[in-house]
Amino acid sequence: MFAKRKSRIVCDVNDTTEAVAAASALEIDPRIAVHPTMLADGRELIYFDDADTALTGERAVDSRTLDPRPATAEMRQDLLTGEWVSIAAARQNRVVLPPANLDPLAPQSPGNPSEIPGDYDVAVFENRSPSFGPSLAEPGAPSALASLREVGLERTHTSVGRCEVVCFSPEHEGSFGTQTVSRARTVIEAWAQRTAALSALPGVEQVFPFENRGREIGVTLGHPHGQIYAYPYVTPRTERLLASIDAYGPGLFADLVERERSGPRVLLTGEHWTAFVPFAARWPIEVHLLPHRHVPDLAATTLVERDELASLYLRLLRGIDLLYATPTPYIAAWHQAPVRERRDDVRLMLALTSPRRAADKLKFLAGSEAAMGAWIGDVTPEAQAEALRTAIGRVTV
What we know:
Elements: E1 3-5, E2 8-10, H1 17-23, E3 34-38, E4 44-48, E5 74-77, E6 84-87, E7 122-126, H2 145-148, E8 156-158, E9 162-167, H3 181-199, E10 206-213, E11 225-231, H4 236-248, H5 252-261, E12 266-269, E13 273-276, E14 285-291, H6 303-321, E15 330-335, E16 349-354, E17 356-358, E18 361-362, H7 367-372, H8 381-392
Antiparallel strand pairs: 1-2, 3-4, 4-7, 5-6, 5-8, 7-9, 9-11, 10-11, 10-15, 12-13, 13-14, 14-16, 15-16, 17-18
Helix pairs in contact: 1-3, 3-6, 6-8
């Protein structure tokens, strides 16, 4: 279990120097208690208690008898793009849209042997069927980044890393946007602490917290939750961003935030964060949220920045849900800097996207987008920004 108080880091693996340096700025909120434990098959489970929790510090023990964990998946390289694909066949067995009485993310009960032994506010645990991990690189081994960026025929690599589930609430239904401000703050604290912990694992090169919301997105559990992936490589999306920074210059994010904060597409702005519809939005609903100062990841944010983010992010999500009479499906993706490189260039950014282009219509990725990556926008970003501002104006948090 990773733990830190100001300047001391303790980790259950031998950390690499670079990863520890990346995590060293983490400031932990003393109002939010953290309780680490283990599940019956040895997976890590961490409880994060709200600042105003009604729970005691005691936690139930997971007494289930579980099958051994699946073997770590294998990555294969696509020769045509250089991208890596993790072939994780064990994921075929995961639960799909279970009834409330068999919710695997609800607290365990006599009729529901779920993944979490007892009641909780926020819980984080290792995925039973991960896309990456549970194996890690050898402690102290040199980074594999340079090798992974090479291209060759039928190249393979073990899918080392970690995949975690972040449960926002013990309730069966909901999303991040349905939580209280206190609960939202707890989730953000969990993201920050887990980003630091996962960044310290051997072989991890990038950490990605995200939430998929809605069946239209492909969600298989209605329980309010997100995930965190710790990749053994720098993702293709970030590689393209690095190329743009090289072409534009190291001030890309500073210039972007300055321009958008004074432009026509701003949705919300606070002392530390601004949300806006991007100039070249691909999706019918697309919002970017960035900090005003440069921070590479959530672990580098201050407590004050996380406090503001909790209420501002809730206003944004609830406003998006007020665009139409029914909740809007989305992917909320926290793009963070790579663990070992370009941390002074890549700024933390939320990219929230939804395929919903009307109350009863979705944008499907057809020939041009899916096959060629050549996007066609259905709504002007300025018009969508105006609609979102109107909806957000009706929100109270």
